[in-house]
User: Fold Xylose isomerase from Hymenobacter koreensis.
Amino acid sequence: MSVAIGAQTLFSAIPQIQYEGPQSDNPLAFRWYDAQRVVAGKPMKEWLRFAGAYWHSFNGSGADPFGEPTHLFPWDTEADPIARARAKMDAAFEFLTKLGLPYYCFHDVDVVDYTNDVADNERRLQTMVAYAKEKQQETGIKLLWGTANLFSHRRYMNGAATNPDFHVLAHGGAQVKAAIDATIALGGENYVFWGGREGYMTLLNTDMKREQEHFARFLHTAKDYARRNGFTGTFFIEPKPMEPTKHQYDYDAATVIGFLRQYDLLDDFKLNLEVNHATLAGHTFQHELQVAADAGLLGSIDANRGDYQNGWDTDQFPNNLYELTESMLVILEAGGLQGGGINFDAKIRRNSTDAQDLFHAHIGGMDLFARALVAADAILEKSDYRQIRRQRYASFDGGPGQAFEQGQLSLEDLRDFAAQNGEPAVVSGRQEYLENLINRFI
Assistant:
């Protein structure tokens, strides 16, 4: 990506992306994502609420531990940080508009480069918030959620809210305050906390109980500030098990839900779940979705995937229709996401260096989710998927099974039932049939 700044913009050669249907062979068109198409009673755009990730798409350089950057953005040549941030934002909103993305998400340091001066950082961010507000008004694009990057700076090498040094924690608070102010000013619908380094490397130097209490106090303090200043949206916690920190406190959905419950945060917080984080925790994404949905805390998702051969967070664009169809079954049965949307927290590969590569990646991801939504809705409405599951638990729908669910049976009652009724029948779970059913509808 090395187009020069000037009359020729970074994405000027890319047309507005349109829906052309499944038969189209145009690589710069949607085949499945038709924003107005009604599925399960709502337009696709309401089920999916797509968002662009400011950090990967407009800050990701393609660098890795073994090589220098390969994504060379034109704004990187700007010496002035505000001019550089404005040029980047111009390109970002051009991209979002041409792709028809209704939302975007950002970390504070994605929007404008920070220094080590708190007041200067606040001024820089406020300047760019004013510019972003103009861009939002011009395009109609909204902010799905904002957040603060409390993991990249070296001061956060031992965490931010869980850091053993109060001075570092205070710096984290300063960043979160500014990021919340920016989110409120831009009409952001949610605010996300990702504890990228909230955890520990070894217990030898860690007071884990105290750190988790500090984390909870930090979240309460941030939440109270936001509410006092008019923020009415939802706060999200994004689980991740490890990497960069060996033991992260927000390991998976179940761990986060337990934390929120223990520290009285359930009324204000829900979960933002990421595919690659789920697999790093040893779960499927479907599992994490179901855990959150069962708790009434399925707020938002980050769309990506990992690599089956790499045990780390590769943040690739999603391409597994089977996996996403199963995921959309969970989301549909839960009634949709609560407050959030589908943020493409994914990056094009190091050797994908053309401007259109970024479009191809997002088009593919949006089409994939749209196709999975259609397939999942058809499965729920036209197959015996629900019936099979209901039948599997039918013994709890009446008689002694129902009495057990209602707390009316003692352990002695269970013993007597088992003794009187002999060995239970072996009943198939019909797993292969159900797996074939997914394939039939996709």
